[in-house]
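Researcher: We're teaching a course module on how sequence relates to structure. For the next exercise, students receive a sequence and then see the predicted structure as tokens, so they can try to spot secondary structure elements on their own. Here is the exercise chain.
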Amino acid sequence: MRVGLFSLMFSLMSGATSGALVVGLAAGTALAGDPVWVQPSGKDLFEGYVNDPDKNVSGAHCWDREHCLLVADEIVAIEPIRLNIPEGGTPTFAVPEDDSAEGHHHALLFADICENIADEDDCSEVDLEAIAGDSGKVVMSGSLGTSKNKGKLKPERWFLASYEVQADGSALPDTLRKQTDTNALKTVFTQHPLLRKSIDLPLQCDGLNIEGLGLIDDRLFFGLRAPIDREAATALILEVSDQVLEDPSLAVDDTILHRPVFRDTNGAPLPNTGIRALETFGSGFLIATGDSRVGVPKKLDKVRERCLKKTKSDALPNMRPKTEDQVAPRIWLWEIGKDPIELYRFKGDWAKEKLEGIALLSEDREAGTIDLLLTIDGRDDPSGLALLVGLPRP
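Model: And here is the predicted structure for the students to work with:
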């Protein structure tokens, strides 16, 4: 069943190019206006899965303006798509036309975990929250967290995988690396006291939750939705060697905890703000931020009980009261060691959306703008994909 993994997953990606992306959207398009929804052309995203992963698209990586790879945070969902962005027309996406379980959105990457994508009992929830890549490889990560509604431990969410790709986006055979040793992965995060105490905690009491992943050379960057450093008002990004994919013990002594401060226009640090997505951009990153907090869970008593057991306190500092709106998403440019620069702030109805992924589609160096693919969690109609066009950058 594993034969043909990479050719099936990336059969749509032939023709993708590497290197600098230099073509903008249609000439004359208004700079950094509201995002535009991308409509399906044929099948829906992740058709055939249980638990509606099409409503939970959590991340994307694109090789150019046409060829992208998506992950979803329900079951073990990964899927290549092809974008069509006509000048002056409605942007659309197409998914693979393949009736086999391997090509039909599941991909053999997860065949040892989930053979029947329509059977919830057959598939452990890896909870893929982030994907990153470059011209040579792609990496994806689980949330490394607990159930947000019940606070239950989810060992299968400690999942990290990578494989190498060619310049056209197709994967190289026999390069798959997967790291699912929960205890070994935890040792990488326990090197830092603030992260150590967040492991296995529910999100409502500042439990560890990964939502962003970046890649620069042989270094991985985990963007944390939670915890945040509430005392110092900083978000957290953990930098580790990609040796963590082979043997986490090799990466234990080679980690750096970055603490970017996201400031409002008045210079004050933004409260309750965590990392929701990372996208490598030159020697730094584009970062999507949003609410670090989560809403009131279905099983509030259970969550409070788990927090009390772990922290000796039933306080839920990372739970958003029903009376408060979520922190609106923003997009930033961050160079390591420097203050993040705000590029875009979502307003109106878009401020209520759950932005969970950003992928660079193109850069117009002459105009000084970039175009992004956005992944939005919780959407039914339209799909959870949108374009942000003509975003000015410094």
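Model: If you want an answer key for the exercise: Helices lie at 5-9, 102-106, 182-189, 193-196, 300-311. The radius of gyration is 20 Å.
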